[in-house]
Design goal:
Layout lengths: L2 H12 L15 H15 L10 H9 L8 H13 L7 E3 L20 H9 L4 E3 L2 E5 L7 E6 L8 H10 L5 E5 L8 H8 L7 E8 L12 E5 L10 E6 L6 H9 L5 E5 L9 E5 L5 E5 L1 E5 L21 E2 L4 H5 L4 H9 L1
Parallel strand pairs: 4-5, 5-8, 8-9, 9-13
Antiparallel strand pairs: 1-11, 2-3, 3-4, 6-7, 6-12, 10-11
Amino acid sequence: MSKYFAIIIVLFSFLSCEKILMEKDPSNKPTEVFNYLWKQMDEKYSYFKYKNVNWDSIKVVYSARINDDLTEEQLFNVLFEMMCEVRDNHTNLISPFNVSRYTDQFPLPIYNFDWRIIKNKYIGNNYLITGPLYNNWVKNTSKKIGYIYYSSFSDMIDDYSLDFVFKRYADADGLIIDVRNNGGGSPINIFKILSRIVTQKQLVYKSRMKNGPKHGEFTESLFVYAEPEGNYRFTKKIIVLTNKNSYSATSFFATATKACDNITLIGDSTGGGLGAPTGGELPNGWTYRFSASQTSSSFYSNSTWDHTDIFEDGVPPDIYVTISNFDHDQEIDTILERAISEI
């Protein structure tokens, strides 16, 4: 494991999607709970400036709805609505009776992905399930094209599965890696895949962590690299497919593809989630989490942090393609069709 890989894994271990850092306060009155959560986000949330959110104004609006006679459910709803103002899928409030979640609403066809169509028309029902990787050859093409579907970065990939799949496609003309509808998971798997793709040590993105109470206070940039590893690798043409239901670790993976010359990103923008979350415990025992870091593509300037290289609202594809309702009804995956044509 490279030292750069180790650094980013430590970062995510500290800011894990699953880990909640416990902090306690003696009071559990609704007004105290509200003020505590607002202050925690004020000092530690990482995307206020990027998202142009006036957090002081938000406090004025929502504090007017808070009093110490609120029921637990009423308090939960006010806090949940306040947190949603930052429009961040890594923002949650967790109580014994509910878990809040911010979700965008996308038009049909749902998320530009239909596994049934892919099986029936493009890869057949005899596909292999190699660990978490569903894979087969694409049917009815003039070139040899391998297809891999990875549904969740939470499903760990072992070296055997990667060796098997990349050996299987060693003589392919091109490879399609489909991460549509992948909600994210462990960053370890990002680098396991990238290690089979990159030809040399490659800067893939940069990150910085919130480290002070002011909205613009961050650590120095941490430069994150991927390095070639493994017995079997693929360095020819690769297409990665994304859609708006691709989040968190999938957005990190999509960001990394921007630095790889042999990868083209096709489909719709990802759903975002490029701020690694941190969290804690509210005075009443509920827990919360929100983004406490920023990530940007190394494809752009390494010395600046501005809207041009931060993809928190979604990683844009290199080639934008969406599936129309008509194509979906005709069982045509327009995104996959374009990927095939690009190879």
